[in-house]
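Exercise 7. Given the encoded structure of a 239-residue chain, write a plausible sequence.
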C-alpha cells in the first residue's frame, strides 16, 4: 500500500507506540489524526509533529464517533484506523485483583477497540474500502498467570478482530491484528520499580514496533496478522 496522502487515525497517539506510528506515517507523507484523553498532551504533540488532534476517551463510543466525524470533516475519508490505546495493571493473584481496575482494563483494551472499529466502519462501509489495525498483544496467544485480566482483555480483542475480519471481507475492509511482545512504554512507568532491570530492558523500543507495522502496511498485500518480537535471537513472524 502506498501511504502517501492516506488518512490515518490513531488512538492513544501522544506517547509510546502511538506517537512513533504517527511520526512514521508523517514520514510517508500521510495525513494523521491522533486522539487521546489529555488535551495538553495532544497540543504538545501537535506542536512537535504538526498533526491534527481530537480529544477522546476510547471507552466512550460518542468520543470515537466524534473522532471519526472529525477526520472525515477534515480530510473527507478515513483510509487507516489504528486502535492503539491500551492499559495494563500490576501483576497479581486472582484474590488480590482490584475489581475496579479490572473493569477499566477491559473497557479500554476490549471495548475501546470495539468502539473505535465501529466508528471507523461507519465511513469505511460507505467508501467501500479501508483498513483497521488493532494493536493487541502477544498475551493474546501466551497468557501470563499473574496478568489474568490483561491477558483476558487481549484474548477478547483478538477474538473480536478475527470475527470482524470475516464479517468485513465482503465490504472490502481489511482488519489487521498486531501482536507485539513487551514494549518500553509509559504503561509500565508506575510498575518499573517492581520490575527487574532485565524485565524492562528486554522490552522493545516503540519505534522498532512501529516500523514493523508500517512496513507491513506498505506491502502490496499486507499480512492480516503479525507477531512482533525482539530480534535478539527471536524472529519476527508474519503469518
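Solution.
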Amino acid at each position: 500500500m502506498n501511504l502517501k496522502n492516506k488518512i490515518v487515525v490513531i488512538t492513544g497517539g501522544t506517547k509510546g507506540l502511538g506517537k512513533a506510528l504517527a511520526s512514521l506515517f508523517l514520514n510517508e507523507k500521510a495525513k494523521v489524526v491522533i486522539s487521546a484523553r489529555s488535551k495538553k498532551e495532544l497540543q504538545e504533540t501537535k506542536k512537535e509533529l504538526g498533526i491534527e488532534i481530537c480529544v477522546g476517551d476510547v471507552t466512550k463510543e460518542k468520543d470515537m464517533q466524534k473522532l471519526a466525524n472529525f477526520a472525515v470533516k477534515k480530510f473527507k475519508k478515513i483510509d487507516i484506523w489504528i486502535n492503539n490505546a491500551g492499559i495494563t495493571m500490576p501483576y497479581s493473584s486472582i484474590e488480590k485483583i482490584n475489581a475496579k481496575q479490572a473493569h477499566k482494563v477491559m473497557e479500554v483494551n476490549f471495548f475501546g477497540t470495539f468502539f473505535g472499529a465501529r466508528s471507523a466502519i461507519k465511513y469505511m462501509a460507505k467508501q467501500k474500502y479501508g483498513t483497521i489495525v488493532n494493536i493487541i498483544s502477544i498475551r493474546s496467544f501466551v497468557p501470563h498467570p499473574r496478568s489474568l485480566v490483561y491477558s483476558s482483555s487481549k484474548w477478547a480483542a483478538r477474538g473480536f478482530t478475527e470475527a470482524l475480519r470475516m464479517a468485513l471481507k465482503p465490504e472490502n475492509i481489511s482488519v489487521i491484528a498486531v501482536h507485539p511482545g513487551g514494549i518500553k512504554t509509559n504503561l509500565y512507568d508506575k510498575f518499573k520499580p517492581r520490575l527487574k532491570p532485565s524485565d524492562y530492558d528486554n522490552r522493545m523500543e516503540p519505534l522498532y514496533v512501529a516500523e514493523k507495522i508500517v512496513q507491513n502496511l506498505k506491502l502490496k498485500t499486507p499480512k492480516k496478522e503479525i507477531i512482533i518480537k525482539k530480534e535478539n535471537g527471536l524472529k519476527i513472524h508474519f503469518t
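Remark. The longest helix spans residues 99-127. Students should compare their own answers with the one above.
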